[in-house]
Amino acid sequence: MTEDAGDLDGLVRKRIRALRVAQGWSLDELAARAGLSQSSLSRIENGQRRLALDQLVTLAKALDTTLDQLVETAAEDVVISPTVDARHGTMRWPVKGDPGISVVRQRVTGPPPDNPARMRAHPGREWLVVLSGTAVLMLGHRRIRLTTHQAAEFPTMMPHALGAEGGPCEVLGIFDRDARRGHLPDPGPRDC
Question: What is the pLDDT of residues 162-187, one digit of tens each?
Fold first, then answer.
């Protein structure tokens, strides 16, 4: 076993124990949920028993997590750098999440488009909350003003665009899988 594999082995064992303790479960409770004996689970947590893939899958389910999350190694760089789109007055920080959704923190500096033809429509749903400042959501023919801590949810098949009012604003947006495709960077004009 390599040193890295040994580190991962120890990390997974610590996670199993930490998740169990965080749930307030005894060894007996988690063992029952995972279909293992209490002594087997104890030996897994203490490194006295080999970690088997089938047991890890079962333990991940019992701990209400995924196998990927259970064995995920720490990222080398925890700092997320934004991508800047000066043309549209936005700055985005992608946030890792479920493969079916995308979470983006975005700084918006420009106003929304005054021409409805510049709004986009695509399949999916979007949810957003204003973290700071005032955002203007153009949704079809409606102009919706959102201040700090206000949120909106809407189907993205409706033409939409987002802008700032009275200075920059920061928005946290969550897109489902279909809406994410509509928000991927492309070389053409984009407003949302």
Answer: 999 999 999 998 877 766 655 555 44
Residues of the chain predicted below pLDDT 50: 1-3, 186-191
CA-to-CA distance for 61 and 42, rounded, in angstroms? 18
Token representation of residue 90 = 């936005």
**Could you tell me if 181 and 132 are in contact, meaning their C-beta atoms sit under 8 angstroms apart?**
no
Tell me the two tokens of residue 111: 């106003």
162 φ/ψ angles, rounded to the nearest 5 degrees? -130, 140
* Among the listed residues 156, 152, 160, the one whose alpha carbon sits nearest the alpha carbon of residue 179: 156
Q: Tens of pLDDT along 90-119?
A: 666 665 555 567 778 889 999 998 887 788
Rounded distance, CA 133 to CA 146, Å? Answer: 9
Cα angle 126, 129, 131 (rounded to 5 degrees) comes to 145
Q: Which residues contact 120 (CB under 8 A, 6 or more apart)?
A: 156, 159, 160, 161, 182, 190, 191, 192
Residues sharing a CB contact under 8 Å with residue 32, sequence separation 6 or more, in sequence order:
none
DSSP 132: E
List all residues 6 or more positions away from 168 whose beta carbon is below 8 Å from its beta carbon: 107, 108, 109, 133
